[in-house]
Amino acid sequence: MTFIAKPKIVHKGLSRNALGLTIRDYEGGMSTLCAGCGHDSVTSAIVQAFFELDIAPHEVAKLSGIGCSSKTPAYFLDASHGFNAVHGRMPSIATGASAANRKLYLIGVSGDGDSLSIGLGQFSHALRRNLDMLYIIENNGVYGLTKGQFSASADVGTKAKKGEVNEQQPIDPVQMAMAQGGTFVARGFSGDKDQLVPLIKAGIKHKGFGLIDVLSPCVTFNDHEDSTKSYAYTRRFFHPAVHADFVPPAEEIKAAYDDGEVMPVEMHDGSKILLRKVSEQYSVHNRGHALDFIRAHHRRGEIITGLLYIDEAEPDMHGISRTPDEPLSQVPFGELCPGSDAMKGLQERFR
Amino acid sequence: MSAKSRMKASRINDFVIRLANVNGTGSASANGLLMKTIFRMGVPVMGKNFFPSNIQGLPTWYEIRVTKDKHLARSGEIDIMVAMNAETYQQDLKSLSPGGVFLYDSTWPRHSVVNRQDVTILGVPLAKMCNEHFSNARARILMKNMAYVGALASLLELDREVIEDAVNRTFATKQALLQANMDAIELGANYASEHFDCPLPTRVEPMDGTAGKIMIDGNTASALGCLFAGATVGAWYPITPSTSLMDAFKAFCERYRIDRETGTRNYCIVQAEDELAAIGIVLGATWNGARAFTPTSGPGLSLMSEFVGYAYFAELPAVLFDVQRVGPSTGMPTRTQQADILSAAYASHGDTRHVLLFPANPNECFELSVAAFDLADRLQTPVIVMLDLDIGMNDWMCDDLEWDDRYRPDRGKVLSAGELESAESFYRYLDVDGDGIPYRTYPGVGRKGAYFVRGSGHNKYGGYTEDADEYQEVVDRLVRKWETAATLVPEPIVQRRKSAEWGIVSVGSCDYAVAEAVEVLARKGIHLSYMRIKAFPFSEAVTGFLHQHKRIFVVEQNRDAQLKSLLTLETDYPKERMESILHYSGLPIDRRCVVEAIEASVARGEAA
Q1: Contact A343/B401, CB-based, under 8 Å?
Q2: Contacts of residue A122 in chain B, CB cutoff 8 Å?
Q3: Would residue A41 count as lying in a domain?
Q4: Which run of H or E residues covers position A242?
C-alpha cells in the first residue's frame, strides 16, 4: 500500500518504553493518503497507544478491508503481521484469527464504506460475538477511493462536493453498537489526539469488541462548506461527554481528580480507565440512558464523543465458546486426534 | 393368480424395494430400520432417500437395493413398491418393473387407480389396523410405517429378532414407544402371513456379506476426517445438503475434544452470518496456523468465491466441502448433482485454479478430507472436497473406517521462531525450493517473520506492487505451484481390461453405477477400461489413461458435461474422441442409463 520506505532514524534522546522500544519501532511505511487526511492522525494515535502500552509489535495482528481507511495498517506497526481482506469482510478474518490464536492483540481499521454498507452484516456479527478486538471505523461520510460518492453514514442534508444533497438517513455505528449490545462503544475525532489515544488504549485492553468510531474528515472530497463531516463542522459541534484516561496495571493514579467526578473502570488485565464526566447527566454504564443522550444531542446536530458505554463483564467469543487459554493453533496434535482405538470403538455405531 | 406365479424367477437377495411416503409422517425411521435389518442379516444393501425441500406433507421416496453382489448403485429397476402416498399411486405403479409387487394401504381400496396386469397388487389395511389398535392420533399415523415394515418382514422373510433388536436399540429409553412399535410390526406381519403366500420369491436370506462393513453417510465420514486431521476451527452457514457435516463434527468434538475436568473445548465452531463470513473465518484461522474448514453447497460456494480467489492469490490454506445439490440457482436443494465441477475448479474472478478432490464413497470422504488438510497446508491454497448429496446424506455400505496412529499432519513450509532467527532473511513469496511453494510464518512468531497478507498486487518479497514484471513473476510462480500440485494429489483408480480400446472416465458418486455397467457390458461382449478421477489438477496418469484409448465415455451427473469440459481444457486429449453420458435429473445415477447409452453408441457405430 506504500511505495516509499520510511527512513528509520532513531534520535538518541527518543524515549523508550518498558520493552526498550522507541516510538519508531511502532511506525509503518510512509502514508500515501492525501496531505491532511484525518486517517493519518488516527494512525499516529495508534502508534502512540501501542508504544505507551508496552505491547511488543509482533504480538499484534492488524487487519483491514478495502478503502482509504483500510490502507492505513500499512502505515503503523510494520513489525506486526497484517491482513488486508476483501471489501467489508475484515471482521470474519478477525473472527478466524481470534479463534486460532486468542493471545494476539487484534486491531482492525475500517471505514464507513467498508463497515456500514458492504460490511454491515459482518460488522454487526463481530459485535454480536463480542469478538476480542479493537475495531476502529475511520468515518468520513464519503467514498474516497472511488472519488466522492456518499457513504451510508452521510447525514441528511449534507452536501457533496459537486452539490448533490443527501436525503437518506445515516447509519450511525455508535447507535447501532449501543442498541445491539456492544460492550465498548466510543466515538472520537481525528483532530483530537488527546482524547483519542486513551480511547485506543482502553479499546485494546477491553476484553471483547471495542468499537471506536473516529470522525476523520476527508480533505479531498468532504471537507467543504455544507458538509457535516468536515473539520470545521466537527470542531464546532463536537461535544465530549466523558473523558477517559488510561492507567496501566500497577501504576498509581497520580493526577488529581475531585471525588465523585472520576469513576475508575477496571479492565481485565488490572489496568484501569478513569472516566471523567464532562457532561453531568451522562451515565456510561446505562445503555438506554447513554443511547437517549446521544440521540437527543444528535437531533440538535451535536456529536457526542468519548467512551460512551462500557461493560467489562460480558463474556467474549472465547468465553462463550469455552476454548482453552492456550491458542487453539498451539494445541498439540496428539490432543486433537482421538486415535485408532477410538476409531475402532466408533465403528459399532455404524453397524 | 398368486404373487408367486406372476413374479419372475426367485430373486433372493437381489432386488429393489421403493417406499413411497409423505414426508413428516415418520417414514424415514421405519425405512432406515428396514435397511439396517437387511444389513444386519449379513446382506449387502444400498439405501437412497429422495426427499423434498419441505418439512411436512410432500411426497418422498426411499429406495433400498438388496444386492448380494455388492452393486451399491441404483439398478434402474423397482421390484417392490410400498405405496403409502395416494397422491403418487399412479406414478408409483407406473414406475414398477414388470413382474413387480405393489403393496398399498387398502383401507381405502382404489381398484380403478391401482390397476396393472403385469404386476401383483397386495392390499394391506394399514390405517384400519392402526386406528383400531392405537388410540393416540399421532401414533395412528406413525405406526402405519412400522406396520408395513411388519408386512414386509413376512413377505421378505426378514429376521424378526433382528428387527426387534433394532427397535429395542432405537427406543431403549422410551418404553411406551417401544411397545407400540413392536405391536405395529406384529399387526403388519400377521396380516401378511394370514392373507398372502409368504414369503415371496423375491426375498431376503441371511448371508455373510457385511462383515467388516459399516453403514455411514459421507458427511459423517468427512466430519470424522476433520476431527482426526486435527481441525480446530469450523465455520459454516446452514445449507442443505451440507448441514449434517458440521452437525456430526460438533457431536464428535463434544465426545472427543472436551476436557472432562475443566470443560474447555479444543475446538471453535462458528455458525457464521453467511457463507461470505464462513470462508473468511476459515482464512483468518489458517492464517494463524489452525486447521480450519467450511462445509457448504453450490449457492454457498458462489458466495465464497471472492475469498476463495483471495486465498489462491495470497496463498492461504483452506478446506472446503462442497456437498453438491441440483442447480442452477436455488435449484432443487434436496436432490443430487455434480454440477459445481467447473465453478469450483475456477472459482473467483481473475486467473484462478483450485485443487479439487472427488470422493466416491464414505471411506474416501474420510481419507480425502484428511488429505485435503495436508494438501491445503502443503500447497498453501484452498482445497475443495467435492461431495454430492447422494454421498453426503445417504447411508452407504462401506469398509470399516481405519486410522493409522503413525499419521502426522503435514503442515507445509512454515518457519518457526528459531528457524526465522537463524535465517538470513524471510520473504513471503520467494520460490526458495523451486517447487513454486514459498515459506510462510504465523502471526505472533516475531518481528522478522512479519508480512502483509493482501489480495492486491504483490511482489515476491511480499510488498505491495503495481509493477508489471513483479506482478507477472508472482502469477507465473503460481503456475509452477499448480504443476507441483498435480504431482501431490491422489492418483485415479484405474481398471484396465486387456485390449480394451474404449475407456470410461467418471468421478465421485457415479462410481458404483459405472463399475456395474462395465461388468454388465463385458458380459455382452463390450469391453471397456475404467478410470475414476480422484483429483484436479489432473496428474500424468489421468492424461496417460486417456491417450491409451481410442474413445472415451465420460459419465457424470450434470447437463453440461463439466468433467468432459475440464478434461478438454486441461489435457491435450482430442475432445471429439470423448462422448458424454449425462444423468442430471436430481436422482442418483443408475447402472441402466450407463449401459443403455454405451449400447446405443455401439449400435450407431460411433464407439467402434
Answers
A1: yes
A2: 273, 276-277, 280
A3: yes
A4: strand A238-247
Residues B98 and B227 in one domain: no
B451 contacts in chain A (CB < 8 Å): 81-82
Q: Tell me the pLDDT tens digit for each residue of B377-398.
A: 999 999 999 999 999 999 999 9
Whether residue B377 sits in one domain with residue B232 = yes
CB pairs under 8 A between A and B: 229
pLDDT band at A254 (very low <50, low <70, confident <90, very high): low
Band of the pLDDT at A4, cuts 50, 70, 90?
Answer: low
Q: Which of B214, B256, B272 sits opposite A342 (nearest CB)?
A: B256
User: Averaged over A1-18, what is the pLDDT?
Assistant: 75
Taking contacts as CB-CB distances below 8 angstroms, the residues of chain A near B456 are 1, 84
Determine, yes or no, domain membership for A113. yes
Confidence band for B1, pLDDT divided at 50, 70 and 90: very low
Question: Is B200 part of a structural domain of the chain?
Answer: no
Would you call A92 and B272 a contact, using CB atoms and an 8 Å cutoff? yes
Where on the phi/psi map is residue B434: left (φ > 0), alpha (ψ -120 to 50), or beta? left
Residues B480 and B526 in one domain: no
Is residue A149 included in any domain, yes or no?
yes
The answer to whether A58 contacts B404, with C-beta atoms less than 8 Å apart, is: no
**Nearest residue, CB atoms, A337 vs list B228, B451, B452:** B228
Chain B residues in contact with A120 (beta carbon < 8 A): none
Same domain, B239 and B315: yes
How near does any CA of chain B get to the CA of A104, in Å? 7
Cβ distance of A324 and B310 shorter than 8 Å? no
Do B348 and B221 lie in one domain? The reply is yes
Instruction: For residue B124, give the 3-state DSSP assignment.
Output: strand
ipTM above 0.85, yes or no: yes
* Cell 457526542 found at: A304
Residue where a domain stops, chosen among B488, B515, B543: B488
> B205-245: per-residue pLDDT in tens?
999 999 999 999 999 999 999 999 999 999 999 999 999 99
Q: Hey, are the CB atoms on B400 and A321 less than 8 Å from each other?
A: no
Give the minimum alpha-carbon distance from B221 to chain A in angstroms, rounded to a whole number. 11
- Mean pLDDT within B410-424: 96
B148, amino acid identity? Y
Residues of A in contact with B464 (CB under 8 A): 1-3, 74
Q: Does residue B410 lie in a domain region? A: no
pLDDT at A28 over 70: yes
Cross-chain residue pair A343–B464, CB shorter than 8 Å? no
Query: Does some domain include residue B206?
Result: no
- What are the CA-CA distances from residue B160 to residues A153, B130, B184, B513 (Å)? 70, 20, 13, 32
Least confident of A269-283, B512-526, B542-556: A269-283
Structural domain of residue A91, as residue ranges?
A: 23-335
Give the pLDDT confidence of A51-100 residue by residue, as tens digits. 999 999 999 999 999 999 999 999 999 999 999 999 999 999 999 999 99
Nearest C-alpha in A relative to B451: A81
Dihedral sign (CA A321, A326, A331, A335): negative
Q: Residue B405 domain-assigned?
A: no
The pTM assigned to this predicted structure is: 0.96
All cell numbers assigned to B442: 504465523
Range of the domain at B452: 417-488
List Cα–Cα distances, B131 to A296, B77, B104, B107, B108, in angstroms: 66, 34, 16, 10, 13
Q: How many domains, in total, are found in chain A?
A: 1
Q: What are the b/e assignments for A132-170, b being 16+ CB within 10 Å?
A: bbbbbbbbbbbbbeeebebbbbbbeebbbbeeeebeeeb
CB contact under 8 Å between B265 and A322, yes or no, is yes
Q: How many CB atoms lie within 10 A of CB A304?
A: 23
CATH number of the domain that residue A143 is part of? 3.40.50.970
- Run of H or E including A244: strand A238-247
Interchain contact, A81 vs B216, CB within 8 Å: no
User: Do A324 and B265 lie within an 8 Å CB cutoff?
Assistant: yes
Is the Cβ pair A57, B407 closer than 8 Å?
A: no
Q: Which three cell numbers stand for residue A24?
A: 519508531
Greater pLDDT, B176 or A65: A65
Range with the lowest mean pLDDT among A146-160, A271-285, B25-39, B237-251?
A271-285
Q: Place A257 in a pLDDT band, splitting at 50, 70 and 90.
A: low
Q: Does residue A16 sit within a domain?
A: no
